[in-house]
Design a protein that fits this description.
Blueprint: H1 3-7, H2 15-22, E1 29-32, H3 39-47, E2 53-58, H4 61-70, E3 78-82, H5 88-93, E4 100-106, H6 111-115, H7 141-147, H8 150-161, H9 166-176, H10 185-195, H11 201-216, H12 219-229, E5 234-244, H13 247-260, E6 281-283, H14 293-298, E7 306-312
Parallel strand pairs: 1-2, 1-4, 2-3, 4-5
Antiparallel strand pairs: 5-7, 6-7
The chain binds S-adenosylmethionine.
S-adenosylmethionine is lined by residues 10, 12, 34, 36-40, 57-60, 63, 84-86, 106, 108-110, 133, 222.
Length: 313
């Protein structure tokens, strides 16, 4: 990784807002479950008192290696763990931790992952059809593109990319691969370009690439799992922050927070409560928080971000 790559690894989003919503006890233990380039991790460890501790998790070993080195000044107070945040309980158990004060999930991919052609996430740079956040995983984008049938491909493009030309694109892919194995991102880009006529092809490419990435990394399943698990890992009064970058993620977080913040979830037609549902959280961000205009000017990639936070009762 050269010096330029280091500079652009990732620009963290809404750092001030995350600190305000996450760190309520500066001597506590916090988890950054999506370390990436360590921007949020650094901000958190900087404001913690000497007893405060940070656990940094990522699926991507390159990110952990880079951030481990970058934050070496705090090495006595930060523990890095390679793994999938959806197994949070098991990951924390490895270091004898049961519950923490706060957890941050800055979802999706880092700029480094997108901008490194060999990782295969980008539709504007040629690279292998890979897209794995965790290189130890066997399942790659190449498998999806070369082995899924037309219906399965169309479903991925439509459900994870909300792409209206999903079926046409899937049909063209299946046709092309009768004679060739599809191996590179540019090959896929050219097939997509040949399958439809639209004014803004880049928007279609962005949606299709996003959908493949979500499928390869089981991003929505991981999010659903952690939403179910996160409260079991927080102390009472503990706080959690989620930063989402598209509506598929944000809708899940919002819906889950709403459900967990209600005392009764019976249909309004029932005369009395029969569900015995108990409120477990207090929502700290009723409408979600967006980056300021100033932040978007400085970091246009932050424009789609939405931050939601909650406190365990
Ligand atoms: C948006 S970046 C985080 C950037 C980070 N906040 C920073 O300041 O640099 C998302 C990171 O989360 C990681 N990631 C995504 N899903 C994950 C999962 N299920 N478990 C662990 N890490 C995950 C990705 O590998 C990526 O490095």
């Amino acid at each position: 990784m050269d010096q330029t790559t280091k500079k652009i690894f990732h620009q963290p989003v809404m750092v001030k807002e995350v600190l305000e919503l996450l760190v309520y006890d500066k001597a506590g233990t916090y988890v950054d479950a999506t370390v990436g380039g360590g921007g949020h991790s650094e901000a958190i460890i900087r404001i913690l008192e000497p007893e405060g501790r940070l656990i940094g998790i990522d699926k991507d070993e390159e990110a952990l290696k880079y951030t481990n080195e970058r934050l070496r000044n705090w090495k006595d107070r930060i523990t890095f763990i390679h793994g999938n945040f959806s197994s949070i309980k098991a990951l924390l158990k490895r270091i004898d931790i049961d519950k923490v004060n706060g957890m941050l999930f800055d979802l999706g991919v880092s700029s480094y992952q997108i901008e490194t052609p060999e990782r295969g996430f980008s539709f504007s740079k040629d690279g292998p059809l890979d897209m794995r956040m965790d290189k130890n995983q066997a399942f790659e984008a190449k498998t999806v593109i070369n082995e899924y049938n037309q219906k399965q491909l169309a479903r991925i493009f439509y459900t994870y990319g909300e792409e209206r030309f999903a079926n046409k694109i899937a049909k063209e892919i299946v046709e092309y691969r009768k004679t060739h194995l599809i191996e590179s991102t540019m090959e896929l880009v050219n097939i997509i370009k040949g399958s439809i006529k639209v004014v803004n092809i880049n928007k279609v490419l962005a949606r299709v690439f996003q959908s493949i990435r979500i499928a390869v990394n089981s991003e929505l399943e991981n999010l659903d799992n952690i939403l179910d698990e996160v409260l079991n890992t927080l102390v009472p009064g503990g706080q959690v922050c989620f930063i989402s970058y598209h509506s598929l993620e944000d809708r899940r977080v919002k819906r889950h927070f709403k459900l967990k913040s209600q005392n009764c979830i019976c249909p309004p037609s029932l005369p009395e409560c029969r569900c015995n549902h108990k409120k477990e959280i207090e929502i700290l961000t009723p409408r979600g928080i967006r980056p300021s205009k100033h932040e978007i000017e400085l970091n246009p990639k932050s424009r789609s971000a939405i931050l939601r936070a909650a406190k365990k009762i």
